[in-house]
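Our consortium's second objective concerns turning raw sequence data into structural hypotheses that experimental partners can test. To show how far this objective has progressed, the report includes one record in full. It was chosen at random from the queue rather than selected for favorable results. The single chain below, 485 residues long, was entered without modification.
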Amino acid sequence: MANLSNINLSNKKWNETGAGLLAVGVYQDKSFTVMAQVIDDSSGGTLSNAIEIGDVKGKNGESHLFYVNDLRVLLLGLGKKEKFNSNTARLVAGKASRVAIEKKIIDLAIECFCDNDDDCQAFGEGVVLGSYQFLDYKTKTKDLFELGSATVLGCENESVLKGASIANAVCLARDLSNHPGNFSTPTKLASTARDIAEEGGMKLTVFERKEFTEMGMGGLAGVAQGTDEPPKFIIMEYMNGGGEKPKVIVGKGLTFDSGGISIKPAGKMDEMKYDMCGSSVVLGVFKALASLKPKLNVVGIIPSTENLNGGKAYKPGDILKAYNGKTIEVLNTDAEGRLILADGLSYASKHYDPEYILDFATLTGAVLVALGHVATGVMGTDDVLMEKVKRSSESTGEKVWEFPLWPEFCKQVQSKIADVKNTGAPMQAGSIAGGAFLKEFVDDSIPWVHFDIAGTAWGAKPDSVNPKGSATGWGVRLVLDMMNA
């Protein structure tokens, strides 16, 4: 993992850190943060002179490098003081890490700009997220620089450290997603789950092909017919919340998707390694639970396989039977994610009495048409749960937009020869059709929200906490915020 594994808190003075880069801040009203003011006074107005000249405006995202008393000082724009929030804190902290990497400076010290728990947590997230790079397959030495350490100055709030732990979980999710399909296989997902379970004292169950097929998981078994790579049905149980109902998260673990018989175009098929990003959300959340050890009960379920062509591959027109007994008419083998999730959702509904179920999947290209790479499409069956999702979306800066699951849409996935079919009306409401299909496999008494992350799991506009050309780990922070982990 090419990112900071932890950060340090220190009360050292600005000129005592020994760091190669010291980051401080200035607001848009031209007022300095505490440490920036001390540096300006000690240097005869070096920073304020740049403001007077007009080079420094203090706008959000702005950065300027100065040399003071043989130290590199990075002055970061914090924007309008009254609008400073957790998202600003996260992005500014990430900017400091990014600049350190660009300048090949191994040690970073950054002044803490925060005065409450939420902002401090986001600040810690930003420092680590900004340090993330995916370098596992680089062999040229010049491409392999990593940030070695980061120290947060003038802060004793341990929410910063909590933020760093959460960000490390996001980075794990990014790594799993960024690896190619010949690395991030169902077996790799299962071994990662095992490592996390051992770290966090969790129960892990992994059903192999023969087991889940005999159990009646016809969706996963059908999609997995065309691959020799061993598929898995992975269950993680973190039970540290006494008698409370468990929260269940289900993630699509489609580690490579060729489209099957309904084969995808060759262009950009390489990106289908990202079709397992839903499973990365689950594993990222559980990595954070293992580290933070909150008083919660959480169950994670990952149905995982490849979707390939072959003599045994399932075909358009096939009828499959899901774990809850419902029959599915397959009209498109490239609408496979909903088939494996059908078994995951059915299993959760049957074997747990959950407070709620959340599922995460790179489910449809249609959501990209609707929302681009900016927001995740969400839909569900419970207004209270949906409001909780939206509040956490606002808190974490991970945007969502709700789609309706009206009866008209749900009727579009009804089959004439089976219970349901895996496509909706042609060229209409594709993302909603996916949600309407999944709804058939969640018990009506269980609050449920579906997250279509096909546009947000990768391809996001690069910024200080989202590197270019990388998976984002979208959803890990939002789920943890929902759970108050």
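The partners drew two points from this record. DSSP finds 15 helices and 18 strands in the chain. The mean pLDDT is 96. Both points have been shared with the crystallography group to help prioritize constructs.
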